Amino acid sequence: MATTRYEHPSTAPMVLMLPDPASDRPGYWQRHWAASRMDCAVLDLGTSATPNRNSLVGRLDQAVHRAGAPVVLVGHGLGALTIAWWANLMSGEDAPGIVAALLVAPADPQEIEAVEMAPLPCSVLPFPALVAGSDDDPALPIERAFSIARQWGAGFARFDGCGGFGPADGIGFWPDGEELLDRFIDLVDDHEARHHLLNLPEWRLSAPNSGPALLRR
């Protein structure tokens, strides 16, 4: 864990995490990161069984404007979809404070039967982004996850054996994901490295706890 990377919180980005409500229970990696890292916080998205796009986007917009520091967004499932919709609906002037976004297994509105979240946003994200997917996610086939990343102008990180990245999928506090986050932040701080990242066809990351490796197909 890289909790010492931000020794000067006033000048360092904060990591704002948007959970997937279906996964937000004991053992969830987002809650663990927030408890163990000084740079992480979790945004409460509520627990409604029928998510409302305007309500979710509004919560995120308020949190970004209250942050008082550059923000790295980390969304999972519905949280990742919320980030994409917020980016799609906001004006261009609202994005400068966003350093980057890590979007883990973005929810497909059709799969989660969230009519008010449909359709899937198609605009290129106005900040550096990385989509993470798993080869055995029953709700988001890896080919679909890769297609979404390309559609959003994002890089892509492939994991093996992480399912839907929830507590039931055996990834625990997801140390590989935390390592990916820190590497991603380092890369977006380096403009030349960021260009390299976003033009790679794929990052490939193997099963939990095996450590990430960069791969050019």
UniProtKB/TrEMBL annotation:
It comes from the Bacteria. One of its GO terms (molecular function) is hydrolase activity. This is Alpha/beta hydrolase.
